[in-house]
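re: ur question from earlier - yeah i can do the single chain one, its not a big deal. heres the input i used so u can compare w yours
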Amino acid sequence: MTGTSTTSGPSDTNAATGTSTTDNAPGAPDTGGPAEVAGTGGPAGVAGASGAGGPAGVSGASGASDTSAVSGSGVVVLRPVTAGDLDLFEGEFATQDGTGAFQWFGFTPAHRLRARHERDGLLGPDGGVLTVTVAGAVAGRVEWFASAWGRPDTSTCWTLAIGLFPAARGRGTGTLAQRLLARYLFAHTRAERIQAWTDQANLAEQRALARAGFTREGVLRSAQWRGGRWHDQVLYSLLRSDLPPAD
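and the output i got, formated as tokens:
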């Protein structure tokens, strides 16, 4: 993911945290995290703004849908982004203290994210953004965008990103939110592979991805420019066949 950062763009997101415990975004333009969300429309069936709704096509043992599950801090829900959420993102992710050092790529404009939200609600065929709530309170966002390991028509997968507000980190929310997003994407798209990467020093996000079921694949050397130098990134993946039928 991956992880996100400022509201001008995630994850990450998500995909995306100097002191962050969950962000891991690749740091694309306009977002300080994942690449821009492109396209119009978007997958159906995500939970509504109230946090309810959405198909239960990939239910866990608890009976939660593929966009909600119960954690120790309360019910974690993924739902479409609202205009009010954008205000919260902009406030929480506007500085390095909010994003954390692993997701701070400098100040970025917020109007582009708002323009995309007005155009397609941040849900498109090439990627999307969903708000993460815990016990009804907004805690951050998850994002996904298309990446290719060759010809796009034969080698495309989703890259996941996440960004959580500082107060929401370290509570297991990142693990559950990333697992929910993976379930959602496997249920509503034909993806075979979902991947995420994070800074080699971001051990908290690496643990979160491992707990979410992702497999560490290796190190991408000097893959991300941040803070005046290049940083190694650790690549993780989750295949459709890796996801258990129930949590």
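The longest strand covers residues 137-148. not sure if urs matches, ping me
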